[in-house]
Fold:
Amino acid sequence: MTPTLSRRPETAHALERRRRAIHGWLLLTPALAMLATFAFYPSVATVWTSLFSRGTRRNPSEFVGLENYARLFDDPTFREVAVNNILYAAVTIPISIVLALVMALWANSKIPARSFLRTAYFTPTVLPMIAAANLWLFFYTPGFGVLDQIGALFGAPSVNWLGQPETALWAVCAVTIWKEAGFFMIFYLAALQTIPEDLREAAEIEGASRWTYTRRVVLPLLAPTTLFVLVNAMINSVKLIDHLFILTKGGPSDSSKLILYYIWESAFAFFDAPSAAAMTVLVLIVLGAVAALQFRLLDRRTHYR
Structure:
């Protein structure tokens, strides 16, 4: 009787563990199915497509290995697009983050009409990208646009902001900064409201100025949010395509063409799916490497609570 009684608790415990495991996998199944359908399979299919040549009805695609990748580095358009995207990211990311932080600090302070100010900052974010691009297209229109009308008051000549290589990319950068700063501000504003008020009061008792309190207390506590925003801003810097369709279509002379637009153009305008797949793989590798480097370098200086 004793051995039989000693095995019963173990059997019940094993059944309970099995029931919990099945219950957990059932909860994970919908998410795993979505990830497999829309993330894992497309990623594997993209890598596989990049290893084949461009096929036609008469000449089926053949396995070429890394030839598509080598051909990309010999493509002057790809090199120009890569430089454009690096410049675009170098301009939009830091300016958007700094503006978002400044707006959040101001919107979090005790000022009149604070709710209106927050709404005004966040309004560009809720606008559809196509609507925002059309709005800025009205600003940039030569002769009739708002910018030219303001410039005419001071005797400035008309400028074709989107029609010349010297200004097209900068005009697109301005639209992105205007669109994303308010979005990043929400994260900073939420983080600011989690900082205890006791810290500010202690800083005032110690005689610290507002700038010292912001630099020595607020900014270190916002480091996790800054890291999160930085990674998202980096990802967004290679996701822009809607604005380009409306504003420049990558022109003039590819001066404002970015990597995602070139991927779309290669796949659906030139019907060169292997080249588009190769560019996509390169973008994923670069984004993964940069994000890992950011976490490795910045995570050590980030103060989590």
Notes: The CA atoms of residues 125 and 183 lie 6 Å apart. The two ends are 54 Å apart (CA to CA). The chain has one domain: 72-301.
